[in-house]
Amino acid sequence: MSARTGVARRSAPFRFFWQVAVALGFLATLAPVLQAAEVTLTAERIEGPGFVARNARAHLDPRDGGRLDMAAASVEVEDRTWRNLTLACRPILIRATRVGCEKGVFDIGEKIPFRLAYDMDSSALDVELLPAAGESWHATWQPAGMGWKGRIDVEAGSLLHLAPLLPAAVPKLNGGRVSGGFDIVTAPTGEVSADGGFSFSSVAFSDATGLHAAEKLGGVVRLVITARSGTVRYRAA
Description:
By secondary structure, the chain is mainly β. It is about 10% helix and about 60% strand. It has one helix at about 10-30, and strands at about 5-10, 40-50, 50-60, 65-75, 80-90, 95, 100-105, 110-120, 125-130, 135-145, 145-160, 170-185, 190-205, 210-230, 230-235. The chain is globular, with a radius of gyration of 19 Å. About 20% of the residues are buried.
């Protein structure tokens, strides 16, 4: 495959994992104060880099091994809005320096099982989404100097999870699988770089009339991505 370069807005996989990281990052900030008592926290608006959550609620019940339920009426990430999001962890592990959830469910319109671990000493976050048997979307994230570094690995991931995030102008994605991974580094200036590769199989598209535009596509793609000031530049080969 020949090398290609271009400019795009923040990619769909970034949005997908940032949505999860936002919710779980908020969970982690609760850990130091939620050691013993049943607690409910509410907020009309939570705002951070690239996202806004509205009418958020978190409830922790330490009985019977502990459970945590979180919900938000809406979460906005750039130009995309998700409504009525929920997250549940049963049981939840909360220690002096660690938060853990081995059996969680994240509902973004479809219910996705997940596991997570957050280390408060190192600020390292480890999240794995498990939508189906044999399918895994795994992300790690931790400070690196004045910036951040992370990695995303996908095993037999269904591309249909990303279809709602693609621009309306592209052909409709009807199926396909992806495996691979890439490393991400964020500089103190806000610049983001990523380098990695993916293999695709059984990819299928259709046009606006529903006719098959392409099907049973496959191949291997290597990506080098840099993002600055809301613009993403990429090189694919």
